[in-house]
Amino acid sequence: MEELQLDWTVASGDTPEGAFVQNALQRIETFQVQNERIPSFEASNYYAAAGVLKAIRNHGLTMGKRFCEWGSEFRVLSCLAAMEAYDACGIEIETKLVRSAASSE
Q1: Are 93 and 99 in contact (CB under 8 A)?
Q2: What is the pLDDT of residues 37-79, one digit of tens each?
Q3: Where would you tag: which of 3, 16, 20, 53 has the fewest CB atoms within 10 A of its CB?
Q4: Are 67 and 41 in contact (CB under 8 A)?
Q5: Residue burial 50-84, b: 16+ Cβ < 10 Å; e: rest
Q6: What is the pLDDT of residue 15?
């Protein structure tokens, strides 16, 4: 078993990933203030996810370049995966989240 070294520099707004995550968190907060709470929606730790995606790619642990995010909410993880050169897509059933994600493009 290999221990992955995570790149925590993505937690900084000085990186494209960090700036993207900061913007996404602001959009999510605005959404949650303007809409009733969606019981199944819980924002992830996107900074950690970005570090994990980068580590997986850097260590060659993928079997290809496809990334599918099931329950993609605001598509933050899918976009982060695309920033790491994955062929990424997101699947979401909650209509309000789909509309909000589409309007933020």
Answers
A1: no
A2: 777 777 788 988 888 888 888 888 888 899 999 988 889 999 9
A3: 3
A4: no
A5: bbbbbebeeeeeeeeeebebeebbbbbbbbbbbbb
A6: 84
